[in-house]
């Protein structure tokens, strides 16, 4: 069974560390995670804003609403999945489920950005009802393993409370 749930930093640290070790792209989602302690501290930091994507009792990903602004009714969304959990629509369902919850709680606009060279992440957002709003050219700068900096364009997407909801089965939200 797939569901959203709160993070349990001590219990979930091993799964998070394994997910980050198995995927070269996840290192851009968090500070360096080299030990169980690093993963636990990361989860402690994000626990207030993020939910675990859980499959059969194991955390396989994260969906997060950061920078919530009650005055403007906005939040910044993000998500990641362990490589073994990708390809089944789980991230889109998680993003849609949290988005619907935030709209029900009174937020109006949810925003996110995905690297232009990451079509899978863009597709996750589109399936969850997010609409393209533009491209921020050379927005991100990452340094590769050889110490060389590289710039990435970012596709900006957003979903409004008034936008049509996608036809996705929501995840249970425990």
TrEMBL record:
This is Protein N-acetyltransferase, RimJ/RimL family. It comes from Agrococcus carbonis. Residues 2-155 form the N-acetyltransferase domain. One of its GO terms (cellular component) is cytoplasm. The lineage of its organism: Bacteria, Bacillati, Actinomycetota, Actinomycetes, Micrococcales. Gene3D superfamilies: 3.40.630.30. Keywords: Transferase. Pfam families: Acetyltransf_3. GO terms for molecular function: protein N-terminal-serine acetyltransferase activity; protein-N-terminal-alanine acetyltransferase activity. PROSITE patterns: GNAT.
């Amino acid at each position: 069974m797939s569901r959203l749930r709160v993070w349990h930093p001590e219990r979930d640290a091993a799964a998070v560390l394994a997910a980050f070790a198995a995927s070269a792209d996840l290192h851009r989602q968090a500070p360096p995670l080299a030990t169980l302690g690093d993963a636990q501290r990361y989860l402690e930091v994000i626990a207030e804003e993020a939910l675990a994507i859980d499959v059969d009792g194991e955390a396989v990903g994260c969906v997060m609403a950061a920078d919530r602004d009650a005055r403007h009714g906005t939040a910044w969304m993000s998500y990641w999945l362990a490589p073994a959990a990708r390809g089944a629509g789980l991230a889109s369902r998680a993003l849609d489920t949290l988005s619907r919850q935030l709209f029900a709680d009174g937020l109006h606009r949810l925003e996110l950005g995905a690297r232009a060279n990451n079509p899978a992440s863009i597709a996750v957002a589109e399936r969850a009802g997010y609409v393209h709003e533009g491209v921020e050219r050379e927005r991100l700068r990452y340094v590769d393993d050889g110490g060389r900096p590289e710039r990435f364009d970012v596709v900006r997407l957003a979903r409004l409370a008034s936008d049509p909801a996608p036809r996705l089965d929501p995840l249970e939200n425990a």
